Amino acid sequence: MPDDDFLLLNPGPVPLSEDVRTAMDGQMVSHRSAAFEAIYERAQDGLDEIFTRSTLSGESTGDGTSLVLNGTATMGMEMAVSNLVGPDDEVVALVNGKFGRRFARIADRYATVTRVEVEWGQSFDVEAVEAAITDETALVTVVHNETSTGLLNPVSAVGELTAEYDTLFAVDGVTSVGGDVFRIDDWHVDVAITDGQKALAAPPGISAVFVTERAAEAAHERKEASDGAGIPFYSDMPWHLRKAEQHQTPFTSAVPLFRALAVAVDEIHEEGMSDRIERHRRQAEAFRDGFAALGLEAFPDADGPTELSNTLTAIALPEAIRGDDATAFFDAVAERDVSISGGQAHLGGDIFRVSNMGHLTPEQVARGVRTVGEALGDVGVDCDPEAGVAAVEDVLNG
Question: Which UniProt keywords apply (predicted)?
Fold first, then answer.
């Protein structure tokens, strides 16, 4: 099949618009030129809007500085931790999936970590989180939208606790910022992290962090007190903040990726964050209803203040095709020129995940559900792909 027939439904990287792809083909310029500074400023202004106005009403929810990073969001996670805490500090890390675990593993290298851990795909008990936070806690980390399991964690409730204990709060918004509601001040967020290749619909290899004034002051104080000891050279937050005032990065910038990101955030502005959030929510509902009509069940357990993700959907595979038998199912999906993701780590062979990040059309959502239904039929699972498509259409055309 031609490339135009390929449908990428992985939860990152996501499909790129033609304009975003084209932006990377421009004539190379110096990363220290006025031309590049204009690109950085354009991307930064767009990111400021996305970080602070990701609401259904469009109102601003905070002030701070967006930093564009030459690296994926893991770099942003490490920047947040390494610049805010040191060896004598305590971090409380919430873990209910792969990326919560990654945040905790990063924190392990810089501070003492107390984990609030539940089974992957399960919801946090906010009372257990409160019990873990003390007057000695310097930083709390959490993943807002856990990409590995499809859960929206209760950032608002955790943020209330960090405010009560006057603790810094770093939030991985990698698969929510740019696609769902995110509230900086209301949730007491000090540092938020996102990735180009997710809901921003930009290429892999570029990411962003949003740093509030409180976090910037804390980072400056830590650097001054430690004389830079323990702070990664490449992820030095005060240095990045200083260079960002000049619309620059401290080191050589990936010029084509910055160009692509600038176009991607322009496209988000043109759509409007409120409309974009509503679209992602409708499409997530359509995926959930479509898969339910195939007889499939959601993997995660959204309990209490926890909700199901609105940018990706995680589905439990039928018992009959789990484990090694899941390979045939994924092969049948790929044969139809559609790409979806399996489970990560110990969830491999137990679940599959699809994304509606980026700019999917209703027809592509329906094709995703139909493809899963047909692939299930190929491996002996009784289901009706047309019922799945009808459920999708009921949501998107209703």
Answer: Aminotransferase, Pyridoxal phosphate, Transferase
Sequence spans of domains, the chain? 3-12+275-396, 18-270
In this prediction, residue 58 carries a pLDDT of 87
Q: For the chain, what's the residue count?
A: 398
pLDDT at 4: 66
Is the Cβ–Cβ distance between 123 and 303 less than 8 Å? yes
- 11 upstream amide cis, omega within 30 of 0: no
- In the structure encoding, which two tokens stand for residue 47, read together? 């990111």
Would you say 337 and 346 are in contact if contact means Cβ atoms under 8 Å apart?
no
Q: Say whether 190 sits in a helix, a strand or coil.
A: coil
Residue 242 near residue 56 (C-beta atoms within 8 A): no
What's the pTM? 0.96
Q: Quick check: 3 pLDDT over 60?
A: no
Closest CA to 39 of 256, 269, 358, 272: 256
d(CA 249, CA 231): 17
Quickly name the fold that domain 18-270 has: Aspartate Aminotransferase; domain 2 (3.40.640)
Report yes or no: 255 and 28 within 8 Å, Cβ to Cβ: yes
Peptide bond into 15 cis (omega under 30): no
Task: Show Cβ contacts of residue 370 under 8 Å, excluding neighbours closer than 6 positions.
Answer: 385, 386, 388, 389
DSSP 38-64: HHHHHHHHHHHHHHH-BSSS-------
Contact 358, 201 (CB under 8 A): yes
Domain 3-12+275-396: what homologous superfamily?
Answer: Aspartate Aminotransferase, domain 1 (3.90.1150.10)
Rounded to an integer, what distance in angstroms lies between the CA atom of residue 132 and that of residue 281?
A: 33
Q: Please name the residue that has the structure tokens 């045939």.
A: 328
Tokens describing residue 113? 């970590």
Rg (CA), the chain: 21
Question: Which token pair is 327?
Answer: 């390979």
